[in-house]
Design goal:
Distance between the termini: 13 Å
Number of helices: 13
Order of helices and strands: HHHHHHHHHHHHH
Shape: globular
Strand content: under 5%
Mean pLDDT: 78
């Protein structure tokens, strides 16, 4: 089967995007791509909302969208860092009270753990302080690398957001100028970007559904299943809300929720903590199937196809490969379907 010039151009652009993604996954820069796609998509959606429902913005709706999203992002970052800084500052101002709280938690947990594990926990405040100091001394370089990696990730995320905002603002000019006067290669690259944004919307919608599913299942588990066995986990309402919020973050959000609920379950008993963890792991594994079902329904792909893609990229690139796999595979399949090659 001979391919026309346009199809060859489209294939070339898909190959360029694919190589670009593989390189970025290899050098751990996919966080910038994901946040860039998110801000770019939000700019387009917000612009559409403003231009349709608020006529007074008129041709300035895109600029208003960019400025509004930028303000929201800045407020979130400043508020988040301010909260974290004030929290640790408060801990530093009341060291004795902080150590007593830690001792209280350890005492409570030590009674729920098996004796073989509980014996490793410190017995008093002095021992806790000595343990913390020894740990910091032994792992100072490791902790420095963690802090460095966190700041590096934040910079990558911020840069990705800035790129997404810029591309979202410039997309207006592309629409106004039309496509007839543009080079064929540029048009093909822009079509590839449009397909990538479309599949990203599919995956983002899927993640919202998964987060909602997580929250509902957690609510049933905490408010129905555990009370049947006479177990009332503390902070149940907060845990359900946290499950939904963190569930919007693929993979990593699940890990955060698992850790939080494990320690809260540990405050009751070691067995409860294990049961909670097993339940959460089961639910999170089911998410892979749910994610594949939702995204696969949009691009007419089988569940097995997406699951294989997720496992394959996770093996090659780790967690970021697992997170990006639905987007990457959906982009490839949608591109090939539009070119009528499959």
């Amino acid at each position: 089967m001979s391919l026309n010039t346009q199809t060859k151009l489209d294939l070339f652009c898909v190959a360029v995007f694919s190589i670009f993604f593989i390189i970025l996954m290899q050098v751990h820069l996919m966080a910038a791509v994901i946040t860039g796609l998110l801000t770019y998509t939000l700019v387009l959606k917000l612009d559409h909302f403003l231009s349709c429902r608020m006529q007074r913005f008129g041709h300035k709706s895109r600029l208003v969208s960019v400025l509004l999203l930028t303000s929201i992002i800045v407020v979130i970052f400043i508020g988040g860092f301010g909260y974290i800084f004030s929290y640790f500052l408060d801990l530093a101002k009341h060291p004795t009270e902080t150590m007593e709280n830690i001792q209280s938690v350890i005492d409570k947990v030590s009674h729920t753990l098996p004796a073989s594990i509980g014996n490793y926990l410190p017995d008093n405040i002095d021992q806790i302080q000595a343990t913390i100091v020894d740990y910091l001394k032994e792992h100072v370089f490791y902790l420095q690398s963690i802090v460095k990696n966190v700041f590096h990730l934040l910079i990558i995320i911020v840069v990705g957001m800035i790129i997404g905002l810029i591309l979202g603002f410039q997309q207006k000019k592309r629409t106004k100028n039309g496509v007839a006067q543009q080079p064929a290669l540029k048009i093909a690259l822009e079509h590839c970007l449009d397909r990538l944004v479309l599949v990203f919307q599919y995956v983002a919608f899927s993640q919202v559904i998964i987060a909602l599913f997580n929250a509902v299942m957690t609510l049933i588990f905490l408010f129905v299943v555990l009370p049947i066995f006479g177990i009332d986990l503390p902070f149940r309402k907060t845990l359900v809300i946290a499950t939904f919020v963190f569930g919007l973050i693929p993979i990593i959000g699940n890990l955060v929720v698992n850790v939080i609920m494990f320690f809260i379950g540990l405050s009751i008993s070691f067995k409860v903590a294990i049961v909670v963890t097993i339940y959460l792991i089961f639910i999170h594994k089911f998410e892979y199937v749910l994610n594949a079902k939702i995204v696969g329904g949009k691009i007419h792909a089988g569940i097995c196809e997406l699951l294989i893609a997720m496992l394959f990229l996770e093996t090659l690139f780790g967690v970021i490969g697992l997170v990006f796999a639905p987007i990457f595979y959906a982009f490839l399949k949608l591109s090939l379907k539009e070119m009528k090659l499959i």
